[in-house]
Amino acid sequence: MAEPMTADDGDEFRSGFVCFVGRPNAGKSTLTNALVGQKIAISSDKPQTTRHVVRGIITRPDGQLVLIDTPGLHKPRTLLGERLNDLVRDTWSEVDVVAVCLPSDQRIGPGDSYLVEQIAHLRSRPTLVALATKSDLVSGERLRQHLVSIQGLEDKLGLSWAHIIPVSAVTGDQVEELGDILLSLLPPGPKYYPDDEFTDEPEEQLVAELIREAVLEGVRDELPHSIAVVVEEMRMRADRPEDKPLLDIYASMVVERDSQKGIVIGHKGERLRQVGTAARQQIAHLLGVPVFLDLKVKVMKDWQRDPKYLNRLGF
Ligand SMILES: Nc1nc2c(ncn2[C@@H]2O[C@H](COP(=O)(O)OP(=O)(O)OP(=O)(O)O)[C@@H](O)[C@H]2O)c(=O)[nH]1
């Protein structure tokens, strides 16, 4: 006897690229991780920690969704700022869906409107979805008001949302549904990545981001913009017994001024040691191998304004 038909039979495989945008701290990285189910994008409670385009890959029997996590768009004050904005706009015009993250615990402000307006004016406009992120932080009534305000942007800015979805990356509420909806908006297409791949970021970059996250924990608010991390060298140590592998990583944290170097190193090197330990544990967890981490702090004066430094740091 023939197997009963499943709902998927006859449906074409869908695939494509989705980009989360939103003001700093809107919850983009956390949502990327929740959807992918793995820690890829770096989240922290400091704004603007996401520098690189990070992809999370979700593969299901009926489709594959490639998530692209961009930095927030902000008024450029440095060459780095300008390059980041260009990167963000390029990404928007290339993806299938742009999902605008509007945190439920914040009113929609001029910054959000500006951002949505920029998207509305793109020449090739992707499908637009609005996400009321961090829905767990507010009451039902407040969430309802927020959804109404989001809808109000349609007339105000002359665009139309394919969906408006409340979601919480922390409680997981609506995360699964969001995945389904995003997938349904993608065109028929090929599987871009093998099933077991969840990001195509080079390991060096993931490692650099983990170190950056560790160093940002607990430092003053003005410092995040001044720190970059470069992985100079990363290789398995030779002559180790097979059951006791060790990954050697040599990395530098780059700051702009001597005073910042002092902050990062801390009293008698205490901070640097803590950062090293935290980063080492995270990296070992991610890559599944014990790690030796050698961390140095370098000063590159005003690296954010210098094209030579920016190129060296991969921007
Ligand atoms: N309660 C709650 N907090 C959340 C949720 N999503 C994110 N957060 C918190 O909000 C803060 C910012 O989240 P991120 O995911 O780093 O935000 P982002 O938009 O990627 O931030 P940038 O990298 O600065 O652009 C972190 O402290 C998260 O823990 C959520 O669904 N609920």
Structure in words:
The chain has 9 helices and 9 strands. By secondary structure, it is an alpha/beta fold. The protein has 2 domains: 14-184, P-loop containing nucleotide triphosphate hydrolases (Rossmann fold), CATH 3.40.50; 203-312, K homology (KH) domain (GMP Synthetase, Chain A, domain 3). The strands form 2 sheets. It has a 6-stranded mixed β-sheet with strand order 2-3-1-4-5-6, sandwiched between helices. Strands 7-8-9 form a 3-stranded mixed β-sheet. Helix 4 (140-157) links the parallel strand 5 (127-132) and strand 6 (163-166). The radius of gyration is 21 Å and the shape is globular. Residues 22, 24-30, 43-45, 47-50, 72, 133-134, 136-137, 168-170 line the site of guanosine-5'-triphosphate. Guanosine-5'-triphosphate is lined by residues 22, 24-30, 43-45, 47-50, 72, 133-134, 136-137, 168-170.
Question: Mind sketching the topology for me?
Answer:
Layout: E1 14-22, H1 28-36, E2 54-60, E3 63-69, H2 79-94, E4 97-101, H3 110-120, E5 127-132, H4 140-157, E6 163-166, H5 175-184, H6 203-216, E7 228-236, E8 247-255, H7 258-265, H8 270-287, E9 291-299, H9 307-312
Helix pairs in contact: 6-8
The site of guanosine-5'-triphosphate (GTP) has 23 residues, from α1.
Organism: Raineyella fluvialis
Region (G2): 48-52
Region (G1): 22-29
